[in-house]
Design a protein that fits this description.
Blueprint: H1 10-28, E1 38-39, E2 46-55, E3 63-65, H2 72-75, E4 78-79, E5 84-86, E6 102-105, E7 110-111, E8 119-123, E9 128-129, E10 132-136, E11 140-145, E12 151-157, E13 164-171, H3 180-183, E14 197-200, E15 205-211, E16 218-224, E17 229-231, E18 237-243, E19 246-254, E20 257-265, E21 270-278, E22 310-311
Parallel strand pairs: 1-7, 2-21, 4-22, 8-11, 10-16
Antiparallel strand pairs: 2-18, 3-5, 6-17, 6-19, 8-9, 11-14, 12-13, 12-15, 15-16, 19-20
């Protein structure tokens, strides 16, 4: 029997294998959360808008005894007036809306151009500002310390198994910042930014910022590889424009809770969507029944830590969300 099969040269076989691998990669590209986003100029797509609200029963955030941390007088200018500092508080808006919630689409492979907006994170009055934000892969976070006290920044990537430490950096103060300008009676201090430090995220995810010296300081950012993300306004309203037609997972995320749902976007059509977010079962620092203070405030040598910037208060019954 004659063998009619024509031998394929190693070079030709390599080219065929390469084309097959490239085709398979292109087909599977949108399915992978870490894909490279393709920008399309002069693009017009569908429009998504709606509102975000929170459902559940809010509990008091965790309280921190200021005498156990550095700089109790300066950082205590935001406190309850009794030597305690609360973890960041988000109160619902009108009709139990959730201002500050991040609303985004998952795995958008191509669409409108990504704006260049490096995210600036400030520490001021021992608070990370903003508390919640969004950022883009490949663009840097720029950290600025405006306080007259030093902070030690720690960045973690969150996951279902815990936090992965990404970055650590001391944030020194501006040489002209003095604590006495903020603590002496009759004086008004001026915040000045110290040296700026940058960190670039090379993959999407949710990151948390912490200060190793002041445990009550925290901030969050949702990092994406595309521009289809927004933050809910004071009444929970949100809007995302020019979405490529298709089916997507829509996610709403906030430290208080999160959820996802499937949506369908049609060309040049408007989709209205109102979402009720359940409180997360793993709330940030919940404290239903605050423990008594085991250490007297007199450990700092003075029983007076004045909340001159903000008097923190929490009334559980009046903040219940039905």
């Amino acid at each position: 029997m004659l063998n009619l099969r024509k031998e394929i040269s190693p070079t030709t076989r390599g080219i065929i294998h390469g084309l097959f691998a490239f085709t398979l990669w292109w087909i599977l590209l949108p399915m992978h959360s870490g894909f490279a986003y393709e920008e399309i100029s002069n693009f017009t797509g569908g429009h998504l808008k709606g509102t975000i609200s929170i459902k559940g029963t809010l509990v008091s955030p965790r309280r921190f005894n200021l005498v156990l941390y550095a700089d109790p007088y300066y950082c205590g200018r935001i406190s309850d007036g009794k030597g305690w500092r609360f973890s960041p508080i988000t109160r619902p808006g009108p009709n139990q809306s959730l201002p500050g919630a991040i609303v985004y689409l998952e795995d958008v492979p191509r669409g409108k151009p990504v704006p260049s907006t490096p995210r600036i994170i400030q520490t001021k009055n021992c608070v990370f500002l903003p508390y919640v934000s969004s950022a883009k892969v490949g663009e840097g976070f720029r950290f600025q310390n405006w306080d007259p006290v030093e902070h030690k920044l720690e960045i973690f990537l969150t996951s279902s198994t815990g936090g992965l430490h990404l970055f650590g950096q001391d944030l020194p103060t501006h040489p002209d910042n003095r604590k006495s300008d903020f603590l002496s009676e009759g004086t008004t201090g001026t915040h000045r930014a110290g040296p700026e430090f940058a960190y670039v995220m090379d993959k999407p995810g949710i990151v948390v910022f912490r200060c190793a010296y002041h445990e009550y300081m925290e901030g969050w950012s949702v990092v994406l590889s595309h521009p289809y993300v927004t933050m809910a306004g004071e009444r929970g309203e949100f809007s995302i424009t020019d979405i490529p037609p298709g089916t997507y997972n829509l996610t709403v995320w906030h430290p208080l809770g999160h959820m996802s749902t499937t949506i369908h976007i049609l060309p040049q059509h408007m989709l209205n969507l109102d979402m009720d977010i359940p409180l997360s079962s793993s709330r940030i620092y919940p404290e239903d029944h605050p423990a008594p203070n085991p250490y007297g405030i007199d450990l700092v040598g003075d029983a007076h830590i004045a909340p001159t910037v903000e008097l923190q208060q929490w009334d559980v019954p009046s903040n219940a969300v039905k």
